[in-house]
Specification:
single chain, 16 helices, six-stranded mixed beta sheet, 25% strand, seven-stranded mixed beta sheet, alpha+beta
Length: 559
């Protein structure tokens, strides 16, 4: 080991928290031992493990008191020196859950990690997460959200910030690698470059305190890899012809597994995870890198070999985080959002809980704005040949150009989800609410659903969509989204869907609030049998500070 005093590169990031346990993730600049000590006298210790010259650890804390705000400190040591880093940034405060707690979940998606200088604030606006961080810093722990859901596009591998693009240009020129030509000259292509994105996104002082304080759940979406990822079989076949694609897959999946996925797991799940065990016990960094590379390529080509979906149970709520990107079956005659293995898993999680609130976390909205839903229905049918081969090719081009690849564009899966929720709400003791929390579409809205005749109405059903944290739509696309709730537009696209041979769904829904297009955060509050939501939009305050302003609040239960 080096005798140089180790330092934190990124973190601490608080990931899993329940009534008595927590996990804390860190990246360090060298091999060391990471110890977390708490104000309640508890501690956890973990040795780092290295991948591509980056060093990581997840420290587990157990037997913590429930419903308690607990300060913690992170120290790093090597076997050759007693020196440790205990700067103001190397610690935080966590709050364990109480069994009867009300639950507040802050959520959203689509966040660029650009700087906060005047030019970038003018270009892409204030940051919803930075605004939330500023609020949490001033609040008592009892008022904090108990969970932060990051619903995809945590990083933009295909469109990084100006600063990272400059680093990429310098690296490409020094590498002189013929595989990394003009197409990906300014895109992220390997593990090292992905580490730049994560450090930029979560290491900025405006959000690092939030990440150290509020536990987080994350799920991947297309920009974590590349725009339109797994939109169709044609898209995949085109990507697989590109010489740089395997390198991108390995970098994306290896880094996602380390920076995002591991923290989604409970301490028990970490203990049972075979890949995590093998990575930690590998004799050399090269052995670890091969393990992760093999895993990544297999996860891409055989989605059932890996599971990115997971569950969190908090208070009286079950949160089911769904991988709606990697696990797709794109075979034209089947074409489903989730393959058979993933769908079986999802059914089990939804049907084996007595939780009063069931939350489906899916990066892609299940219920789109009405006209856009019909457009995606029509497009899938046409691309599959409903109007002949010529229109099939046009449909495929439109699918990629217009990003028509949400649940509505996977008709079988859309109907299967409605059927699953119908089973959930038809049980002898149905939940008070069932909700889909989503992002991706760069606008925010609240929609209420009805499963149709013959299905009990006891459970309230909602689509809550919050996007972006920080990456606003251009004005022309905002206009399109506003038109998507206008009756004449909805009727015309509904007509087109019928002309493509599609029947009406039993499920129906109405937009109750929105759409909005500002950067921001949604806050979902669940208490007993009740639910409510707040929509908060980000604004730039004095001196470039960032804050949240409440735009809308509505009860989701009751009259």
């Amino acid at each position: 080991m080096s005798t140089q005093t180790p330092e934190l590169v990124l973190g601490p990031i608080l990931r899993y928290v329940d009534t008595s346990r927590a996990t804390i993730w860190v990246e360090t600049d060298g091999e060391c031992t990471v110890e977390v000590r708490t104000s309640t006298g508890h501690s956890g210790v973990e040795s780092t493990w290295a991948v591509h010259d980056h060093h990581f650890a997840i420290v587990r804390l157990v037997d913590l008191p429930s419903g308690t705000a607990i300060d913690y400190r992170v120290s790093l040591t090597t076997s050759d020196t007693s020196a440790s880093t205990e700067s103001a940034e190397a610690g935080g405060t966590l709050r364990t859950a109480a069994r009867d707690d009300a639950l507040t979940v802050a959520f959203g998606s689509c966040r660029r990690g650009d700087t906060y200088d005047t030019d970038r604030l003018d270009a892409i606006g204030a940051d919803g997460l930075a605004g939330l961080a500023a609020r949490v810093k001033e609040q008592d722990a009892e008022l904090w959200p108990q969970l932060l859901l990051l619903l995809g596009d945590q990083v933009y591998a295909d469109d990084p910030s100006p600063e990272i693009k400059e680093k990429l240009r310098q690296r490409r020129e020094s590498q002189n690698d013929p595989e990394l030509g003009e197409e990906v000259f300014e895109e992220i292509c390997d593990f090292e470059e992905y580490t730049w994105l994560y450090r930029e996104s979560w290491g900025a002082e405006q959000v690092s305190g939030l990440m150290a304080t509020i536990p987080s759940c994350m799920i991947l979406d297309d920009h974590d890899l590349r725009d339109d990822w797994n939109s169709s079989l044609d898209w995949r076949e085109d990507m697989e012809q590109k010489s740089w694609w395997p390198r991108r897959i390995v970098g994306a999946f290896s880094s996602y597994w380390i920076y995002q996925h591991l923290g989604n797991l409970s301490p028990d799940e970490l203990e049972k995870d075979e890949l995590y065990r093998d990575v930690r016990s590998a004799k050399t960094p090269q052995d670890r890198e091969k393990l992760l590379a093999d895993f990544s390529l297999r996860a891409d080509s055989e989605p059932s070999s890996a599971r990115w979906s997971y569950v969190r149970d908090l208070a009286n709520t079950r949160i089911i985080m769904i991988d709606s990107r990697c696990s797709r079956d794109l075979t034209p005659e089947r074409r489903t959002m989730l393959d058979e293995s993933e769908w079986t898993w999802l059914r089990e999680q939804a049907l084996t809980t007595e939780a009063r609130h069931i939350v489906f976390g899916t990066s892609l909205p299940y219920l789109m704005l009405p006209a856009l839903h019909h457009l995606e229905q029509w497009n899938e049918a046409v691309a599959q040949g409903a109007w002949g081969r010529r229109w099939g090719k046009i449909g495929e081009k439109l699918r990629l150009t217009l990003d028509l690849e949400h649940w509505a564009a996977f008709g079988k899966s859309f109907e299967d989800m409605a059927g699953l929720v119908g089973e959930v709400v038809s049980r002898p003791r149905p939940p008070a609410t069932a909700m889909w929390l989503s992002g991706d579409v760069h606008c925010s809205y609240v929609a209420e659903a009805d499963l149709g005749e013959g299905v009990p109405k006891t459970t309230r059903l909602y689509q809550l969509t919050m996007s972006p944290f920080r990456n606003p739509l251009d004005l022309p696309i905002r206009v399109v989204n506003r038109l998507a709730i206008r009756r004449p537009v909805v009727k015309f696209l509904h007509f087109l869907a019928h002309r493509a041979g599609l029947d009406d769904h039993a499920i129906s829904w109405q937009t109750k609030a929105g759409p909005w297009f500002d950067n921001g955060v949604m806050l979902l509050r669940l208490e007993g049998e009740t639910a409510s939501v707040q929509i908060e939009h980000a604004r730039t305050g004095p001196g470039g500070s960032q804050e949240l302003l409440q735009t809308h609040e509505m009860a989701l239960t009751g009259d």
